[in-house]
Amino acid sequence: MRRSKRHSGWQFLWSMLCLFTFACKQTPQQEVAGQSRRDPPAGRAGKTVTLTIPHHPLRTEQDLEVLLQQIGDARVVLLGEASHGTAEYYTWRAAITKRLMQEKGFDFVAVEGEWADSYRVNQFIKGPRKDSAAAVALLEQYNRWPTWMWGNYEVASLVHWLNAVNQGKPADQKAGFFGLDVYCLWESMTELLPYVKNNPDLVKAARQVHRCFQPYSADAMQYAEAVANASANCRAETSRLWREIQQQSQNEGNTKSEAQFVAEQNALVALNGERYYRAAVTSNSESWNIRDRHMMQTLQRLLEFHGPESKAIVWEHNTHVGDARYTDMADRGEVNVGQLVRKEYGEEQVFAVGFGSYQGTVIAASRWGAPYQTMEVPPAVPGSWEQILHQLSPTDKIIFSKDLVANKALNRPVGHRAIGVVYDPKLEHLGNYVPSVLPKRYDAFIFLDKTRALHPIERITVRSEPPDLYPSGT
């Protein structure tokens, strides 16, 4: 995640301490009532702030029933995470996903991952029955840094379950798994060629894109730097390919085959990937918006392809699923998937779930491209959303925004922790808290008091390509 000047550091946190001082006096009665009473800040002797935060215990998967009821008939369910390296975020999202598919007929999971790699997962889960070892071997293909994000045993368990639950189902009723992200431009071009080999015009257009990118050795940041130095620009080639592949689909009629859809998507990754890397060297905000708009466009395409009654589950970082309009992202003109999907489908059709924790361990790296480490996540800073929920009661819980709408103290920005793939616990207080109006950013929030690091699948080699999530880290 971005650190420089992102969250105004202690200036913001100090202002929040004026609202939420940090010596919380708990009693069993307050826990039951869902209240957190705090000592007054200096200069306001004799005054207290009482936060009433109704919540529901989260101990077993049966406790998710209240969440499923609130999700109701939503078409898109967004499941966040406060880091890309926390085991419980993955396991609870998997538990919710399974119930949504089994009880509410959701059609696919769309993740913050590459299209080409994730489509191979989609083919695996829709194929013949495989054992868990095969699922682990499959996820070794996620060998682009940060490898642990989708190449981990928690995801392998879900992939194995999806493969098993799909057995015996008609092809059009099998659960899917897709990647929404804009990365792996080169790989998408390689994956495209088999789909267009019988169309000379598309083969020619695809080869022109290949030739344009060839001098940069499959390194997108080399290409971006060349663009910045005015020595490269493949925009015309990727735009031509996208136009021609769309025209080809239109010529073949209204009913689109899966092969056509996949070919189009690979061309779309090339188009938007080129735009993303071209913007990445000059503007974090512009590249962020290109990326999230691409993820939204991909989600829309998937829902359209699966039909008007289709339903999607989205797994992404909180910074993507939590509506950007209720964070400081809006001040920089940034949008995200959570905001765009609400605007496109209507808030009644979208249900966003944020995740967070008070302390524990996490998988992250000390710098871009560095080996991952298991790091300590310190207790959340005073005045933050996570610290407030810990003081409320140091237990796992589900909170619904509808229960907080009358709480004036929480309907203003409160610091909300976000950990990226690059992390330094010692500096967390300087830039890892996003000012957020929580009741508007999400529809529900899952708080896990103490969490553990993810369990990565070990690899011998890592692809020498630009790091995923560049430059934001989330």
Count of beta strands: 13
Quaternary assembly: single chain
- Which percent range describes the beta-strand content? 5-15%
Low-confidence stretches: 1-49
Please give the radius of gyration in angstroms.
23 Å
Helix/strand order, N-terminal first: HHEEEHEHEHHHEHHHHHHEHHEEHEEEHE
Number of helices: 17
Shape: globular
Features:
9-stranded mixed β-sheet; alpha/beta; 15% strand; two-stranded antiparallel sheet; single chain
Descriptive overview:
The protein is α/β, with parallel strands linked by helices and 474 residues long. Helix content is 41%, strand content 15%. It has helices at residues 9-17, 28-33, 65-71, 87-104, 115-125, 132-139, 153-166, 185-196, 200-213, 220-228, 235-251, 258-280, 284-306, 318-321, 337-345, 385-392, 438-441; strands spanning 35-38, 49-52, 56-57, 76-79, 108-114, 176-181, 312-315, 350-364, 373-377, 397-400, 414-417, 433-436, 444-451. Strands 3, 4, 5, 6, 7, 8, 9, 10 and 13 form a 9-stranded mixed sheet that branches. It is globular, with a radius of gyration of 23 Å. The chain starts with 8 loop residues before the first helix and ends in a 23-residue tail after the last strand. Residues 1-49 have low confidence and may be disordered.
